[in-house]
Amino acid sequence: MTGAHSLLTDASIGATHVLLWGARAAVEIRCPGPGVLRVRHAPSSAVTSFTHPEQPPKHSFAVVADGALPLSARREGDTLHVSAEGASLEVSLAAGTWIFSDAEGRALARSEAVSGQVRPAFPVDELRSRLSLAAPPGEAYLGFGEKVGPLDKRGLRFTFWNTDAFPPHVESDPLYASIPFFIALRGGVAWGLFLDEPWRSEVDIALNDPTRIEWESRGPELDVYLLAGPHPADVLRRYAALTGRPAMPPLWSLGAHQSRWGYETEDDVRGVVRGYRSRGLPLDVVHLDIDYMDAYRVWTWDRSRFPDPARLARELAAEGVKLVTIVDPGIKADEGYAVYDEARARDYLVRLPRGGPLVGEVWPDPAVFPDLTREEVQRWWGDLQKPFVDAGIAGIWNDMNEPACFSVRPDRGLPAPSGGRTAGLGAIEGSTLPDDARHGARRHLEVHNVYGLGMSRATHEGLARHAPERRPFVLTRAAFAGIQRYAAVWTGDFASNFTHLEASIPMLIGLGLSGVPFVGADIPGFTGRANGELLVRWMQAGLFYPLMRNHAARGRPAQEPWRFGEPYLGLARAALERRYRLLPALYTLMHEAAETGIPVLRPLSFAAPGDPEALHAFDQLLFGGDLLVAPVVRPGQSKRLVYLPAGAWMDFANLERAGSVEQGGRHVIADAPLGVVPVWLRAGGAVALTAPRMHTTSASWEEITWHVHAAERVSGRLYEDEGDGHGASRVTRVEGGLDGATFALERSATGDLPLAREVETIRVHGVPAPRSVVGARSRRAIDGGVEVEVAADWQRIELQLS
Ligand code: GLC
């Protein structure tokens, strides 16, 4: 079909796929959904059948979309043009390189030959494959999962290898989760790339060569998905359609969580709940760390310290508090212990390359590892939690699931040096299992990064099976692309210092930009020693984290909100109360995330994709579309520099002040003494808040106040349901705006959930005192606006402004 020196010499073109191949390499192109192309690069040895050539089917752990939209292909000289709905690809047959364009014909991504070599773009051999992409000047790269650094990762290099990084530092890489996906942004236009390879890989983002991104995988192929924008939200929508929409969590899991490695007895737990309630502090969840287990045997209780978990769960339920237990994958190798005996008998364990189960050391020692990458093992594991569900345990916290393994026998006691070789076991990277350990027919090197995903899936699906009337809550440390279907992710063992507080913001936004909306970091850091100021500042930032959990390491000073005395306790209470006021807005955003994949925490670039200042403001965030939050993340500060993107923004500090309106597109200095978290409300924004409570009950709110920043166009949304389960729901929309001297707002609602309130309050900010108000029961002047009370099923209000 083309010259002898071409990489791709043959083609097979079907209705929904194009396969190109030559002596060394093959490329298969498919369209799994609008605006998305799959370009699977493989060695040509992988192409099967001469008469109907195709690449063998592949099991993806991440991708759930199974659509195949029609493709059309046309050849012009050395180029094959492939087009599909919303995207097209131009492949150079000689070089095997391609250009990806969107529906408007904008060239978004370009693959290249590997730098400095006259080699095809994706040399493939048994051990490595490489992708080289153009990195045009000024293009920013966001996402890559749980990664350090600012939002734009240009100039950094990352490894995808889930790692128990202890203690993690602000420059540590890799960390616990690997999501080989990024969103590129140039001139306000976004596109995305997902490398569906669980194998260990490394990406160099224009560091080694400022004009290229180079991605190298230890696996034999490169399964690349290219996603069109043009807005970053469009890329995320397509990514969620591909890898699965986030699970909608129960409301209680959005309340405050308290945890500590070191709640050793039932009485410790009761004391924590008493500590909260006696000080009037909101709380929904207590986590039990590994202390509850019988000698670290997973799925057991130490009955001398936790004699009756079901009774404890009932007692706590009376205070509105739920219990979540930690579960680690390592199984104590201990004959007579049912979980171990069964796993062995059923051949469910990770094995040595030759011979029996691999034995290592984690908290249990010796320990073996269930092969949670296999579906039958996942199902078994998910069923092991039934007694926990029956005892009233509300959710499961999956830890050490990289999987962490401190040492592998026969080298017990000697941590395997990173990249080292251990007698008879081959290479081990970090504290985990050897590359050559066996997961059924697969090597550990291939499935290491999806072990935590498999464990979370087992947990999530097990909870759904054993408590079908509830929505599962699973928290995980290790993750891979697709984890959003099953679990929330927290950032592991952050230290109690301001540097890690600051680092949490771009990292959590980065996770959201990698498809994972339900995220949090330990407040106020896990290791080290926090002080009262750090606690307060971290809670002020953390009240906007989708997961708000206070957690502390064993042997470190206790960090519950009352451990630092006043004024910190009072300020911590205020932060918790703000969190509970925010719940209707947070719940609505989680629901939006579950429907679309668009995260709760967003970079400022969402509001201003073409504005470089917005991109670089990485210690600020957008909470949904309407609130801009700039928490203080440095010690001793009472003011901070804030970038406001274009538009008008009302000072809404602490979610209560109705302050001055600033024009954006510039920096402002916010007043932020210790009691203040700077927040702004976007002109046109309408956010529903409620009154603080000691714990959640239902997301059918009895009290709702809409905070509206008047503009020509205003819109807001509120999602409500019972807070758990799969029953009735309601979506309320408010729409309207300023028209001359009139400000009008209309409400419409869909869904079958009855209203739980009689009235609603609407605070319209940014308008002069109205001459008359139509549609309200009462009105009251507030600073820079008016507050009206309306019947809960109001239809329309109209303010005549003088
Ligand atoms: C790991 C977890 C931490 C937990 C500890 C003990 O370090 O990251 O959250 O407290 O193990 O289980």
From TrEMBL:
Single GO MF annotation: carbohydrate binding
Ranges for domain Glycosyl hydrolase family 31 C-terminal: 597-685
Keywords in alphabetical order: Glycosidase, Hydrolase
Protein family per UniProt: Belongs to the glycosyl hydrolase 31 family.
Species of the source: Sorangium cellulosum (strain So ce56) (Polyangium cellulosum (strain So ce56))
Biological process, per Gene Ontology: carbohydrate metabolic process
Domain Glycoside hydrolase family 31 N-terminal: 27-204
UniProt-recorded name of the protein: Alpha-glucosidase family protein
Domain Glycoside hydrolase family 31 TIM barrel residues, every copy: 246-589
Taxonomic lineage of the native organism: Bacteria, Pseudomonadati, Myxococcota, Polyangia, Polyangiales
